[in-house]
Specification:
262 residues, alpha/beta, Nucleoside Triphosphate Pyrophosphohydrolase, TIM Barrel, 2 domains, eight-stranded mixed beta barrel, four-stranded mixed sheet, 5 helices, globular
Length: 262
C-alpha cells in the first residue's frame, strides 16, 4: 500500500576512481544544516528518478550524471517530513565534470568503513553500513564467505551456530531471522532467501544472500528487485552448479555484490 504523505527523494552514492564515495554537508537554512549526507533531493512532479538525480547533482555540485544504478530504498520519518529515499550508485565512469560547491556546502571523499566526517544525517546510518559490505566475496554456504580480493574491505561471515560470538557476522535462513534477532538484538545477521516470503521477512537483516543455481533462481530475484526493491544489500550467491547459466549484469539491476562459491 502506498503512502501519499511520503515525499519521493533520490540520493546518489558517487564514486571516484579510487573507490571512495562522496558526502556533502547540508547548507545553512535547510533542516539539519551542517549534517553530512549523500547528494540528492526531491523528485519533482512528472520527473523520473534518474532525471531528478541528474538535476540535483548539476544544481548542487555542478557535475553531469550520465547514468546511475538503482541500489537501496528506505522510508525515514524526520520531524519535518516523511521521505521515501531511493539510493543510486554512480560509478566513476558514470559522471564527469568538476565538482563545485554551488550551495556553499562542504564535500569530502570517504572510504567505505572509514568515515571521517560528522554528524551524519540520521537516515544514512544503514546506508553507510551497507557500503562497507564488499561487492565481491567467495566461499561456501557450509563454511562461510570472505572477501575475494585484497583491494576490498576485509570481511568474513559465518553460518550461525549456538554460542558463536555475537560480534561475528553470521547468516541464517530467513525464517530464523526474527528469532535470532530477538535473542541477539545487536548482532550483524544476514539472511538466506529463496522466495518472495523470505525476501520480505529479510528486510530487517544486514544483508540478503540469494543462492543462484538455475535460470529460475535468476528470474525470481529479478522479479523481486522490480516488484519489491530492497532496503538491504543483496548478495547473489553464484553456486558451482550455476556456472553454465547465463548471468545478467547483476550490478546494473540493483544487486550489491556477488559471492562466488568455491
Amino acid at each position: 500500500m502506498s503512502d501519499n504523505s511520503l515525499i519521493e527523494v533520490v540520493a546518489g552514492v558517487l564514486y571516484n576512481q579510487q573507490g571512495e564515495f562522496l558526502l556533502s554537508s547540508r547548507p545553512a537554512g535547510k533542516a539539519y544544516a551542517g549534517y553530512w549526507e549523500f547528494a540528492g533531493g526531491k523528485v519533482e512532479a512528472n520527473e523520473s528518478r534518474l532525471a531528478a538525480l541528474q538535476r540535483e547533482f548539476a544544481e548542487e555540485l555542478g557535475i553531469e550524471i550520465t547514468t546511475a544504478t538503482p541500489w537501496l530504498t528506505k522510508i525515514h520519518h524526520y520531524e519535518h517530513a516523511h521521505v521515501h529515499l531511493h539510493f543510486y550508485r554512480i560509478a566513476a565512469s558514470q559522471w564527469h565534470g568538476q565538482l563545485t560547491a554551488r550551495e556553499q556546502q562542504s564535500w569530502r571523499w570517504q572510504k567505505p568503513g572509514n568515515l571521517t566526517v560528522a554528524p551524519m544525517l540520521p537516515a544514512n546510518a544503514p546506508i553507510l553500513a551497507a557500503l562497507a559490505i564488499p561487492t565481491n566475496m567467495s566461499g561456501h554456504s557450509n563454511t562461510g564467505f570472505h572477501t575475494a580480493t585484497p583491494q576490498q574491505p576485509a570481511l568474513q561471515i559465518l553460518p550461525y551456530q549456538p554460542g558463536i560470538a555475537t560480534t561475528t557476522v553470521v547468516y541464517v535462513p530467513a525464517g530464523q531471522l526474527l528469532q535470532l534477532t530477538n535473542q541477539h538484538p545487536t548482532a550483524n545477521i544476514w539472511a538466506v532467501c529463496h522466495n518472495r516470503e523470505q525476501w520480505l521477512q529479510a528486510q530487517t537483516a544486514a544483508a540478503i544472500i540469494w543462492p543462484v543455481a538455475s535460470s529460475e533462481d535468476i528470474q525470481r530475484l529479478l522479479t523481486l528487485l522490480q516488484q519489491h526493491p530492497s532496503g538491504v544489500p543483496i548478495m547473489a550467491l553464484l553456486q558451482k552448479s550455476s556456472q553454465p547459466v547465463a548471468q545478467p549484469d547483476w550490478f546494473s539491476l540493483g544487486v550489491h555484490g556477488i559471492i562466488q562459491e568455491q
